[in-house]
TrEMBL record:
PROSITE patterns, alphabetized: GH9_2, GH9_3
Keyword Acetylation in annotation: no
EC number: 3.2.1.4
Catalysis: reaction(s): Endohydrolysis of (1->4)-beta-D-glucosidic linkages in cellulose, lichenin and cereal beta-D-glucans
Listed name of the protein: Endoglucanase
Keyword list, A-Z: Carbohydrate metabolism, Cellulose degradation, Glycosidase, Hydrolase, Polysaccharide degradation, Signal
Length: 722
């Protein structure tokens, strides 16, 4: 038999014309850009030089390797990844990147590509050599028998053709033909032979296991055969040997789709009869946090596609730092947003506990907040020593896969007296203080442990003041802190709420800020402080501060509104800000501040996320929810199918439904693209869901009290100020 192969002859580097790179978005601390090149000749590898008019502290790139940067970090050199090294005439190569800087800049950027050009001629391959065990490449012999669980159900059945038979050599070549009638994202193949096969060399697949006598083999896809679509005709070539060979064995094969997850979550009944089923949202949002869990999962884990992961997370002296939540669509544990999300969830639980009870979620919610609290306790290893991050963001963001499969290094970073971080220490103290209030009647011993750690961390934050992202450079490119004063006030107020000790209130007043709040988030607690200060002191002088914040946020203030009514603060996580401020408005209304108006506005912001625009922005809930959130683990097909950067770029729904996750949200014109590549609008995060979930709990609480805008007649959206 004669086969043809291509021999490539490498040409010198070919330099393409410089391109100007547009900046799609910019904000305080970073910017987003995309460099696109029209490929003018075939290439087998390439490099790109990104030049910035001023230094860029760190750069995140998903579709290229970062090789180097110059001394002042105004130029970065990128190189091709294995899966996109080959580019052809007529292709367009686009490289998305995220830059981290100090301040809000709109940089001028140019990019230059140089590639190794490919060309060549065809030559014929000599006749196939005899197939013997010795002639097969290393690793082709039968692998150890490995037990594998292959999903039940129907697959795509193949037709078999014997292409070549070599009775005198004990070898054979067969082809399987599959007519694909569904989307297949990663696959395993069950192959059954009519006689024993002692070696197998499959094309475009990997050998996973076989039975003892070699009559049953399990194969799995390679990157080249990851995605098959309806209408595709797929051929698989197998070359093998049999100890009983007189003629090629008969064989059957069935291809099973590993990109299929039939697990669904049954919606809770809408007992309140409201426009949106808040009970169902609460349940699914809690399940989102369960999907974010790191460490050893509990026996009652409800997320079937998640398993134990990052069990080896340790501090510099071997301290156990397993547990906690992965931050967003990645696998870093950033403790500042993690602790902030925990506090906001606890605050909503403390205030609207009746909502969780009505939804049947009380015990699940206790477990939800205890998970990060347990992790944060592990991180506080000494009085003035707190681990604040596990995992390196730059390394982590350059990979795509399952957390259960991680092999990358996961360094841990801490603050101490010499390298302080008052905001993350105080945010952690706040989580412990709020946790004490939640658990003091349920588990007094655990609650007292939380309070003891909270007191120590408060002392640490006040005594050794400093910005954590200046002490921990690995955090500065991702969660850069603007200042520490709002957290010093916030933590002190939570300590006063937990203990009643005057020193905490005195410290809170020292750092209190009465100015209108830009927007409640992991780095901005101003409105939270205004609310707590009024709530804890009862002093009416704080009410105008709250009003000032919402005057800025309501229609007619300085904030932009989308045509369909979204209070639009920033493109990156637009729904996060609107939902957080909706929660704050509901808290203000509970305190008697413009009760009806604030509740009406909050409802409209949350209903925007739930479906008022004609689509839901919550995965697994409502009409036309997001199908492709930027989230690694939910996008991966089931094992043993590969999961890597190729998955990121597939335009197909995530394999697993990430129930309850709030995506970043639309732009200021209500435009939204449901794409896994769209990390600005379609990523999910712990802090995105926190204020959102607590606001939903607040709305459910209002239904129980018969004070919901749907019950009082003020439920028209979009909201307009009166």
């Amino acid at each position: 038999m004669m086969l043809a192969v291509v021999l490539l002859v490498l040409a010198p580097l070919a330099v393409l014309t410089d391109v100007d790179v547009p900046v799609d978005n910019h904000w305080s601390g970073g910017f987003q850009g995309k460099a696109c090149f029209n490929i003018q000749q075939d290439m087998t590898s390439w490099k790109v030089h990104l030049n910035f008019h001023q230094p860029v502290e760190t750069l995140e790139v998903w579709t290229a390797e970062i090789d180097s940067s110059n001394a002042d970090k105004s130029e970065y050199t990128l190189s091709s990844k294995q899966w996109n090294a080959n580019e052809h005439v007529g292709d367009q190569l686009c490289i998305d990147f995220l830059g981290h800087v100090t301040g809000d800049i709109n940089p001028q950027i140019t990019a230059t590509m140089e590639g190794v050009a490919g060309g060549g001629t065809f030559q014929e391959r000599p006749t196939l050599a005899p197939i013997t065990q010795e002639s097969l490449p290393p690793g082709v012999t039968r692998p150890p028998t490995t037990p594998m669980t292959i999903p039940d159900g129907e697959g795509v059945v193949a037709t078999m053709t014997v292409k070549n038979d070599y009775p005198d050599r004990g070898g054979f070549e067969i082809w399987f033909d599959f007519d694909v009638d569904r989307i297949v994202e990663g696959w395993v193949m069950k192959v059954h032979f009519s006689k024993p096969v002692d070696s197998l060399k499959p094309g475009q697949s990997r050998i996973m296991s076989h039975n003892a006598d070699g009559t049953e083999w399990i194969l799995a896809n390679t990157d080249d055969t990851l995605l098959l679509k309806p209408g595709d005709h797929f051929q698989l070539r197998l070359v093998g040997t049999s100890p009983e060979h007189t003629a090629a064995p008969k064989a059957t094969a069935i291809m099973i789709n590993m990109g299929q997850d039939n697990w669904t979550v049954t919606a809770l009944p809408n007992k309140a009869g409201s426009k949106y089923n808040y009970d169902d949202v609460l349940m699914k949002s809690i399940m989102f946090y369960e999907a974010q869990r790191s460490g050893k999962l509990p026996a009652n884990n409800r997320i079937p596609w998640r398993g134990d992961s990052a069990l080896g997370d340790k501090g510099a002296n071997g301290e156990d730092l397993s547990g906690g939540w992965y931050d967003a669509g990645d696998f870093v544990k950033f403790n500042l947003p993690l602790a902030w999300a925990t506090v906001v969830l606890e605050w909503g639980f403390l205030t609207f506990k009746d909502a969780y009870k009505a939804a049947g979620q009380t015990e699940w919610m206790y477990e939800a907040v205890k998970w990060p609290l347990d992790y944060l306790l592990k991180c506080h290893v000494a009085d003035d020593e707190l681990y604040v991050q596990v995992g390196n963001g730059a390394v982590d963001h350059g990979q795509w896969g399952r957390p259960e499969d991680m092999t990358m290094s996961r360094p841990a970073y801490k603050i101490d007296a010499s390298k302080p971080g008052s905001e993350v220490a105080m945010e952690t103290a706040s989580a412990f203080a709020a946790g004490y209030l939640l658990f003091k009647e349920k588990d007094a011993k655990y609650a007292n442990t939380l309070l003891a750690h909270a007191k120590t961390l408060w002392n640490f934050a006040v005594k050794h003041q400093g910005i954590y992202s200046q002490s921990v450079s690995a955090a500065s490119g991702f969660y850069t802190s603007a200042n520490i004063t709002d957290e010093l006030c916030w933590g002190s107020l939570w300590m006063y709420k937990a203990t009643g000790e005057q020193k905490y209130l005195d410290t809170a007043k020292q750092y209190y800020d009465p100015t209108p709040d830009w927007g409640m988030s992991w780095d901005d607690n101003i409105i939270g402080n205004q609310l707590l200060m009024y709530n804890l002191t009862g002093d009416a002088k704080y009410v105008p501060d709250i009003e000032g914040t919402f005057k800025m946020w309501f229609p007619g203030g300085s904030l932009k509104y989308s045509p369909k009514g979204l209070a639009y603060r920033l493109q990156w996580g637009s729904l996060r800000y609107a939902s957080n401020m909706a929660f704050a408005a509901l808290m203000a209304a509970e305190m008697g501040v413009h009760t009806d108006m604030y509740r009406h506005w909050a409802m409209c912001q949350i209903h925007y996320a739930l479906g008022d625009t004609g689509r839901s922005f919550v995965v697994g809930f409502g009409k036309n929810p997001p199908k492709q959130p930027h989230h690694r683990s939910s996008s991966c097909p089931n094992k043993p199918a590969l999961c890597n950067m190729n998955i990121l770029h597939l335009d197909v729904p995530n394999v697993h439904t990430l129930y309850g996750a709030l995506v970043g949200g639309p732009d200021g014109s209500d435009k939204y693209e449901d794409s896994r590549n769209n990390y600005v609008n379609n990523e999910v995060a712990n802090d995105y869901n926190a204020g959102f979930q607590s606001a939903v709990a607040g709305l459910r609480h209002l239904l129980l009290k018969h004070q919901h805008p749907e019950q009082t007649g003020g439920d028209t959206c979009p909201f307009t100020s009166s």
